[in-house]
Amino acid sequence: MEIQQTVNSAKQATGRFFKRLFLGILILLLLAFAITYLSTQFAYSEGDRAGVVSKLSKKGYVIKTYEGELNVGAQGQVGNMVNNTWAFTVAENDENIAKLIEDAVTSGKRVKLHYEQRYMKFSWMGDTEYFVTKVEPAQ
After folding, report:
1. pLDDT tier for residue 27 given thresholds of 50, 70 and 90
2. pLDDT digits (tens, 9 = 90+) for 103-132
3. d(C-alpha 65, C-alpha 129), whole Å
């Protein structure tokens, strides 16, 4: 009888240990996911770049993003012109911004792109860390 009680007590203690272990691991995983997700949503830098959009394409297997290049002009001396392109990403849900950039590609006019540089991103969020949030005609 005493042996049976000892065995039952050991089983209960082991069960409690594994429940607590599972709960602790689950809480740590949820916390890690929340921190990672939040770090992909906040920008640590933002600014504007102006130039002529030279390329915009929709890329991705399942989650599509718009990837583009902005020719921000020449650098150097007049006789030594070097193209300076800047790669950017437009999120899939920003269809209006993508449409404005497509119009800029076809018209060839200069635009000013307002962007946010994200601290971290997942691979399916785009190729670059620069996400365009606003498009304006450049003067």
Report:
1. very high
2. 999 898 899 999 999 877 777 788 888 999
3. 12
**Which helix (H) or strand (E) covers residue 92, if one does?**
none
What percentage of the chain reaches a pLDDT higher than 90?
A: 39
pTM, rounded to two decimals: 0.70
| CATH ID of 43-137, from 3.30.70.1230, 2.40.420.20, 2.40.50.140, 3.40.50.880 | 2.40.50.140
Residue 11: both structure tokens together: 């089983």
* Paired tokens of 119: 């601290």
User: Which pLDDT score, from 0 to 100, does residue 80 have?
Assistant: 54
Write down the domain spans for the chain: 1-41, 43-137
Instruction: DSSP for 15-83, please give it.
Output: HHHHHHHHHHHHHHHHHHHHHHHHHHH-EEEEEEEEEEEEEEEEE-SSS-EEEEEEEEEEES-TTS-EE
| DSSP secondary structure string for all residues of 108-125 | --EEEEEEEEES---GGG
Q: What is the identity of the amino acid at 82?
A: V
